[in-house]
Amino acid sequence: MNAIRTDIENRVFLVSGGTSGVGKAIATGLARLGAKVVIISRSAESGKAALKDISEATGNSRGDWVAADLSLQSSIREVSDVIKRKYDHLHVLVNACGAIHFEKELTAEGIDRMFAVNVLSHYLLTNRLLDILQESGPARVITVSGNPRFFKNPVINFEDIQMEHQYSGMRAANQSLFAKTLFAFELAKRLEGTGVTSNAFYPGFVKSNLSRNAPWYLRAAAPLFNAIVKAECEIGVYLASENEIERANGVFFDDKKQIVPIHTKFDDGAGNKLWTLCEGLRIY
Ligand SMILES: NC(=O)c1ccc[n+]([C@@H]2O[C@H](COP(=O)([O-])OP(=O)(O)OC[C@H]3O[C@@H](n4cnc5c(N)ncnc54)[C@H](OP(=O)(O)O)[C@@H]3O)[C@@H](O)[C@H]2O)c1
Question: Is Endoplasmic reticulum tagged as a keyword (predicted)?
Answer without folding.
Answer: no
